[in-house]
Amino acid sequence: MIKRNAMLLIALLVLFTSGLAGCAGGSGAKIRIGEVTRSVFYAPEYVALEKGFFKEEGLDVELQTTAGGDKTMTALLSGAIDVALVGAETSIYVYQQGAEDPVINFAQLTQTDGTFLVAREETGEFDWSKLNGSVFLGQRKGGMPQMAGEFTLKKHGIDPHADLELIQNIEFANIAAAFASGTGQYVQLFEPQASIFEREGKGHVVASFGTESGQLPYTVFMTKQSYMNKHKDAVQKFTNAIYKAQMWVGSHTPEETAKTIAPYFKDTDMDILTSSVKRYLEQGTYASTPALHEEAWNNLLDVMDSAGELKGRVEMAKVVNNDFAESAVKASSK
């Protein structure tokens, strides 16, 4: 009887410890990402997946597209995803609301706006004054594309709410289709949509908001403080993989990057993917390291303030943790 009870106790202990090990491993190994949209703008993310950089770090990463910054942040706050790839401004909005569990930016992916100004008609040499009195198909109020767009227009002496007809009531996912169907004379588009419209004769890229608005922590991987506290090792491994991908993209040709990310853009021709990657590389859109920089952060605050979306300037240290990025860079240099 004693032997039988002892065996039962051992069996229970094995089951218990196995369960703990499974929980511990699962909590760090599985990470669910929600990206705000599917775009060549996020090429290093897809490279990290396709080249197995996450797997090298022992991570099982699941990617889903949660269209729109508001939907992505809702998914993060509700626990539907673990990590969000979205504009850094969303973390500021959460902080401004006095969240007990703030959202922390830990790895920057892009460092400029990724949209281009697309004109319906080709009118020769472009001048920003041509937008005066035009119908402009804008983005969601409070989102980075719209704020960076307004910031650029103001820099060129254009009041977006007085000098042109600004349309902002169209869902992010439907903006390109709305323009293609005849709405607006100008629109902001990400790649590869901008290049696709050029090929199809539906529009012409006349300017880059990325070049015009300067460096910004435009798209960043972020997570809740509580998740970061519980899964520091997983967040570090995640950041390591992103940095490997950033270095890979920076050291390979646009053709090689386009070929690698092609599985994520099955309906897009290779030449369009290549030209899109090339365009982003040429204007320095992809961040070379995951670290966020103070000067770019202050530029972000200026952009948000200009758009009337900032209650008060938020110190970078309040919603940014660069420790993971710095560790990833340091480990790679050894």
UniProtKB/TrEMBL annotation:
This is ABC transporter substrate-binding protein. SUPFAM superfamilies: Periplasmic binding protein-like II. Keywords: Signal. Residues 1-23 form the signal peptide. GO terms for cellular component: periplasmic space. It is found in: Periplasm. Belongs to the bacterial solute-binding protein SsuA/TauA family. Gene3D superfamilies: Periplasmic binding protein-like II. PROSITE patterns: PROKAR_LIPOPROTEIN (PS51257). The lineage of its organism: Bacteria, Bacillati, Bacillota, Bacilli, Bacillales.
